[in-house]
Amino acid sequence: GAGVSQSPSNKVTEKGKDVELRCDPISGHTALYWYRQSLGQGLEFLIYFQGNSAPDKSGLPSDRFSAERTGGSVSTLTIQRTQQEDSAVYLCASSLSSGLAGQETQYFGPGTRLLVL
Amino acid sequence: GEDVEQSLFLSVREGDSSVINCTYTDSSSTYLYWYKQEPGAGLQLLTYIFSNMDMKQDQRLTVLLNKKDKHLSLRIADTQTGDSAIYFCAERLSEDSNYQLIWGAGTKLIIKP
Fold this sequence. Notes:
The structure holds 2 protein chains of 2 kinds.
Chain A: E1 5-7, E2 10-13, E3 19-24, E4 31-37, E5 43-50, E6 65-69, E7 75-79, E8 88-95, E9 107-108, E10 112-116
Parallel strand pairs in A: 2-10
Antiparallel strand pairs in A: 1-3, 3-7, 4-5, 4-8, 6-7, 8-9, 8-10
Chain B: E1 4-6, E2 9-13, E3 18-24, E4 31-37, E5 43-50, E6 55-58, E7 61-66, E8 71-76, E9 85-92, E10 101-103, E11 107-112
Parallel strand pairs in B: 2-11
Antiparallel strand pairs in B: 1-3, 3-8, 4-5, 4-9, 6-7, 7-8, 9-10, 9-11
């Protein structure tokens, strides 16, 4: 597609339920990132995928959070047993990740707004 | 640890210049970025500057970098209502960490008529 897309755009769930958030990166981008943005906060890095390499999961806040990237393209972020503090906007970005200025630029999707009641 | 700080709000009159400031702590920054987030939209890259530059201009946008003081600014000339958004400053630390960006909390630009 022309840009990074995410679905759903909004998700309301009850505490304790599992949720899945989807990201479709820009075609040809090998790198994919998940961030969390809480109200009035900067972006919090969650996880990074680069090609077929093992993902960098160092930003995941707990073992309730996991992510997959199938076929080097679409990614799913799963939050199990959601808590109210998980409420935030979850942003996905992709990049060519060649390391050269301008080419590693991250292009963001519109985000999924998650509200846990 | 690394930190990027910005004021949370900036209010300017339409037609005036807006100057959004950002300070960072890590002197090993290689690139510094400005992203714009409009309501309900994703982040959009506005511009970036390499750490060996002190100024970059792109139409109404001017980026100034004072590496000694670790201070970055974004000037928007002739601010318009369409410039209303949250502006995020981010730094990339080293050539090897091409994915590791440290983000500020964002400055909300409010345009007064």
